[in-house]
């Protein structure tokens, strides 16, 4: 149902874009708008991941530089049947994470140092499973297209201000068409973009719980991330608000309800859905690999694997074992 709803919203956004082109310049304007959008989408398809990672100063890590974190992502990708994505760490105190990339073969996942320091191993695994769910559902591409179309509609609205009122223009609706193109269409595009974002978050929560094996891990992680996001300012996100919808929790502010202007569902609603999923037994809490059922979860991380040879205790939040600060519970 979520897939159908997303497809319908994307179709509406595309039709809205074409309509704005027609309002601004008639048939000719609609054709020009189509080619402009096609060019923008093509550029975003190939370069959006690099742009977003650069905006947030993400640093790529591997099994040597971030052994425990990298291994968690590696095992989750295996569980999900996905190619291993590139793994990044963002030097930012706000706990948060996002995924990007045009397809599973060219995906990247990123987590902030605040998230790696604040969350337990199980919660980190659940968050990264959520991000891999976005990759598997191809939400990263969907959201890139959505953001590009919404931006193009706003751009056309600005064009209407300068060219739409010209008597020699091809605008068939005069000043009324200019007002619609300037105000109503960009507002509607923003609403559609936010609706798609909220829809995809619920789907990624559910699939992420299936990948990591325990919905309650993700529910606990969401509580901590929402609390941290409300307390710590993410300056990179504030400078680039168009990327806010990519994060697991809105990095700009602590939205508390499924409001009209929210890019994310209410955290309370997401937690309730995950708790209901756990209560229904939809996803059994699978024991970590290499450990017997009932073994202490905080001994060596969610997958029961020791740190890579040569890794030093205290070398960073992603290089410590499960008994470190990340194992603490709120």
Automatic annotation (TrEMBL):
<keyword id="KW-0862">Zinc</keyword>
<protein>
    <recommendedName>
        <fullName>Protease HtpX homolog</fullName>
        <ecNumber>3.4.24.-</ecNumber>
    </recommendedName>
</protein>
<keyword id="KW-1133">Transmembrane helix</keyword>
<keyword id="KW-0645">Protease</keyword>
<comment type="similarity">
    <text>Belongs to the peptidase M48B family.</text>
</comment>
<feature type="binding site">
    <location>
        <position position="201"/>
    </location>
    <ligand>
        <name>Zn(2+)</name>
    </ligand>
</feature>
<dbReference type="InterPro" id="IPR022919">
    <property type="entry name" value="Pept_M48_protease_HtpX"/>
</dbReference>
<feature type="transmembrane region" description="Helical">
    <location>
        <begin position="141"/>
        <end position="163"/>
    </location>
</feature>
<keyword id="KW-0479">Metal-binding</keyword>
<keyword id="KW-0482">Metalloprotease</keyword>
<keyword id="KW-0346">Stress response</keyword>
<dbReference type="InterPro" id="IPR001915">
    <property type="entry name" value="Peptidase_M48"/>
</dbReference>
<keyword id="KW-0378">Hydrolase</keyword>
<dbReference type="GO" id="GO:0004222">
    <property type="term" value="F:metalloendopeptidase activity"/>
</dbReference>
<dbReference type="GO" id="GO:0008270">
    <property type="term" value="F:zinc ion binding"/>
</dbReference>
<dbReference type="Pfam" id="PF01435">
    <property type="entry name" value="Peptidase_M48"/>
</dbReference>
<feature type="binding site">
    <location>
        <position position="130"/>
    </location>
    <ligand>
        <name>Zn(2+)</name>
    </ligand>
</feature>
<keyword id="KW-0472">Membrane</keyword>
<feature type="binding site">
    <location>
        <position position="134"/>
    </location>
    <ligand>
        <name>Zn(2+)</name>
    </ligand>
</feature>
<feature type="domain" description="Peptidase M48">
    <location>
        <begin position="65"/>
        <end position="277"/>
    </location>
</feature>
<keyword id="KW-1003">Cell membrane</keyword>
<dbReference type="GO" id="GO:0005886">
    <property type="term" value="C:plasma membrane"/>
</dbReference>
<dbReference type="InterPro" id="IPR050083">
    <property type="entry name" value="HtpX_protease"/>
</dbReference>
<keyword id="KW-0812">Transmembrane</keyword>
<feature type="active site">
    <location>
        <position position="131"/>
    </location>
</feature>
<feature type="transmembrane region" description="Helical">
    <location>
        <begin position="175"/>
        <end position="196"/>
    </location>
</feature>
<dbReference type="GO" id="GO:0006508">
    <property type="term" value="P:proteolysis"/>
</dbReference>
<feature type="region of interest" description="Disordered">
    <location>
        <begin position="286"/>
        <end position="330"/>
    </location>
</feature>
């Amino acid at each position: 149902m979520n897939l159908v709803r997303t497809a319908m919203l994307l179709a509406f956004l595309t039709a809205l874009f074409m309509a704005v082109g027609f309002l601004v310049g008639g048939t000719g304007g609609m054709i020009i708008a189509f080619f402009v959008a096609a060019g923008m989408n093509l550029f975003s398809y190939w370069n959006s991941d690099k742009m977003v990672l650069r905006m947030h100063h993400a640093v790529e890590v591997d099994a040597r530089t971030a052994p425990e974190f990298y291994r968690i992502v590696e095992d989750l990708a295996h569980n999900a049947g996905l190619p291993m994505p590139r793994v990044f760490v963002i030097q930012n105190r706000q706990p948060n994470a996002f995924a990007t990339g045009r397809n599973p073969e060219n995906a990247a996942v990123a987590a902030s140092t605040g998230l790696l320091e604040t969350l337990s191993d199980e919660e980190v695994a659940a968050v990264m499973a959520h991000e891999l769910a976005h990759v598997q559902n191809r939400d990263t591409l969907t959201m890139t297209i959505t953001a590009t179309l919404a931006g193009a509609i706003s751009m056309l609205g600005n064009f209407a201000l300068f060219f739409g009122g010209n008597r020699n223009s091809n605008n068939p609706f005069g000043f009324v068409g200019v007002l619609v193109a300037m105000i109503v269409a960009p507002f509607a595009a923003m609403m559609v973009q936010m609706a798609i974002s909220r829809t995809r978050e619920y789907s990624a929560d559910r699939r992420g719980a299936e990948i990591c094996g325990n919905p309650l891990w993700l529910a606990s992680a969401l509580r901590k991330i929402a609390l941290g996001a409300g307390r710590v300012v993410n300056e990179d996100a504030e400078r680039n608000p168009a990327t806010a919808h990519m994060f697991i929790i809105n990095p700009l502010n602590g939205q508390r309800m499924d409001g009209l202007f929210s890019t994310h569902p209410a955290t309370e609603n997401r937690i309730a859905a995950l708790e209901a999923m756990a209560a229904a037994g939809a996803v059994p809490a699978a024991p970590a690999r290499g450990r017997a059922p009932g073994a202490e979860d905080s001994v060596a991380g969610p997958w029961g694997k020791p740190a890579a040879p040569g890794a030093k205790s205290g070398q960073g939040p992603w290089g410590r074992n499960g008994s470190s600060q990340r194992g603490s519970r709120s």
